[in-house]
Amino acid sequence: MRIEIEIERSCPGEGQAARFQSFHVEVPRHATVLDTLMAVKNQEDGSVTFRRSCRSAICGSCAMRINGRSGLACDTQVEGELRRHGKLRIQPLAHMPVVRDLAVEIDPFWARVRAVQPWVERPREAEPSWPVEQETRMPQSAAEEMDDTSKCIMCMSCFSACEVAEVDTRFLGPAALAKAYRFVADPRDTNTQNRLATLNGGGGYWDCTRCNQCVEACPKDVKPMEAIVHLRREAIRAGFTGTIGSRHITDFLSIVRQEGRLNEGRMPMQMKGFNPFKLLPVLPLAWRMWRKGKLPLPWHWPIPGVSQVRRIMDRKGGARRKSFVVGKGDLK
Amino acid sequence: MSFKYAYYTGCAAKGVCPELHQSTLAVARALGIELVELKSASCCGAGVIGELEYETQLAMNARNLALAERMGTDMLTVCGTCQGVLSRANHDLKGDDLRGRINEVISDSGGPYGGTIQPKHLLWVLIQDYGIKRLEERIKNPLTGLRVGPFYGCYILRPSEYLGFDDPYNPKSLEQVIRALGAQPVDYSGRTKCCGFPIVLEQESSAMRMVGTNLLEAMDKGADCLVTPCPLCHMNLDIYQGRAEKEMDRKIGLPILHLPQLVGLALGIEPRELGLEKNMVDTGRLLELASRGGVRV
Questions:
Q1: C or N: which end of chain A has fewer Cβ atoms within 10 Å?
Q2: What pLDDT was estimated at residue A266?
Q3: Fold classified for A111-122+141-237
Q4: Shortest CB distance from A308 goes to which of B11, B47, B110?
Q5: Which residue of A has its CA nearest to B164?
Q6: Which band of pLDDT confidence, cut at 50, 70 and 90, is reported for residue B147?
Q7: Largest distance between two CA atoms of chain B
Q8: B229 near B152, Cβ under 8 Å?
Q9: A81 to chain B: which residues are within 8 Å by CB?
Q10: Neighboring chain A residues of B157 at a CB cutoff of 8 Å
Q11: CA closest to A206 among chain B residues
């Protein structure tokens, strides 16, 4: 079939700003986007620049934005894209500077991965009596726990799809944080507390907005956002409960346990510790909401059947919860 | 044909967005959809409880779904976030092993859940069950000339593995409804993006840049208002719009409507009955524009 492909072309180093260029090429019906790009390069314009290697969704080189979706060119078929969008428009990955056309500067991405220390930390002294061949053994369940994150091929699709990376250059991003969880979940690693402490601040796991763009974009089903959520869980369990992010979770649980549903009127008050000075900045907004009839009272009647909800919540994790939800007075 | 659903309000419609509950009831009445409110349903956990205790959240939702199942009807939701969480829970509870284990937990607390019903967002119900054609027949006040930007929100689209109603990269359902109401959908890339609400307390300036970027893009593409099926998106886009204006250093003033508010206007329901005066961003000019048939003066 003869198709049109629009490619975003630029060369910032030579002062060429981004512009779309259309090519018409003949490709087989089952052609992938990468096949099409190769056809353009071989038949139309040899200067069209992109990365590619394995052509089998293993190496992760050919990630790009295809009709706005970040993914691998080699495992995306042209026919499906045309059916879905009626066009084929290719752009470089987002949130990284372009080198030329579809090739982006990958150092900013790798700097983030390196920042999470992507290796097992285990001093030899930790198990001096163990023979070397036993040192690397782990239970099957532990291997399964980190299985999703081990599948990452570092293609950067998730980072390009990440909505927080778009507005916050400090954010480590989905792939690096998923990698961090891979080592937090690794029973051989002895550095868990440090890892969780380092990522507890700005740029770390609390900055994710849980938009699921990375889960949707990942070609290897790594589910980076779920790994980020697991990091949050591990952080709270390990006692890192002072951040707004962790308070949001534990206070949410505690309000729902008390009233059966969330009370948005109480959430900011509870999180800021009923401190009038800390609450001062939210007062003008609260006042405007009250005038519009939108401000919920800080306490309302529990839903009918709240005792059932409390029973369920206490059966699932009630005992463990007592250890980190402290000072709320509403847990048995 | 009769339409009856177990109505799951979610927390926001009963708290910070009373206008969503109000407009849902008004629209259901006008369309002849019978809603039986699940008054004893709990919060869905919003994915927040699930961050720490996934099975607690799952058990709470097994109870919620069981309440609807006992009524013998599907569940109707009006919150994209609730829909995402309930769709995922229902997907997970299809497995006999896990459902059995969760049913043990809720056996004396609202259970068991047989896994026989579907949670459906109002948006899906309008298209899948009620039908666009039937909706068009009920339009008394077509919103001719109004340019409406759809804002889907994350959880009604992603992960598509659990939701599966719309293409997460090129959804069409809101556009279908907007067209049925006589209005014109605005195409902009922000329509499938995140509103930033989950990090508004943690990283307010990031969240406000998300709000600002999406709203300004929609405005620049000519939107007169946005419509969203998620009250949490509504909160961030509407209640926090003033802060987003400060973050972006630009006046925005774009009205944000809940899905049933927009549908209600086209059905000829009074704006007050739809709670439009409760929206933080003034909807007066939008209503004027709608009453002039979209003619700009």
A1: C
A2: 84
A3: Fumarate Reductase Iron-sulfur Protein; Chain B, domain 2 (1.10.1060)
A4: B110
A5: A216
A6: very high
A7: 64
A8: yes
A9: none
A10: 212
A11: B202
A222 reaches B (C-beta below 8 A): no
Which chain B positions have a beta carbon within 8 Å of A241's beta carbon?
none
Contact assessment for residue A196 and residue A238, using Cβ atoms and an 8 Å cutoff: yes
Measure the CA angle with vertex A309, ends A305 and A310; round to 5°: 110
- Confirm or reject contact between B47 and chain A (CB < 8 A): yes
The string of pLDDT tens digits covering residues B75-96 is 999 999 999 999 999 999 998 8
* Residue where the block lists tokens 């089903």: A221
Structure tokens at A231: 């990091």
- Candidate from A117-131, B163-177, B236-250 with smallest mean pLDDT: A117-131
CA dist A246 and A96 (Å) reads 30
Considering the four listed CATH numbers 3.20.20.120, 3.40.50.1820, 2.40.128.50, 3.40.50.11810, the one that applies to the domain covering B138-291 is: 3.40.50.11810
- Cβ–Cβ gap A260/B160 under 8 Å: no
Closest CA to B90 of B73, B114, B110: B114
| Interval B153-188: pLDDT, tens | 999 999 999 998 999 999 999 999 999 999 999 999
Q: Write the Ramachandran bin of A15: left for phi over 0, alpha for psi from -120 to 50, otherwise beta.
A: left
Q: Which of B96, B99, B33, B28 minimizes the C-alpha distance to B66?
A: B99
Task: Write the DSSP assignment of A170-203 as a string of letters.
Answer: T---HHHHHHHHHHHS-TT-S-HHHHHHHTTSTT
Provide the β-strand partners of residue A7: A21, A90
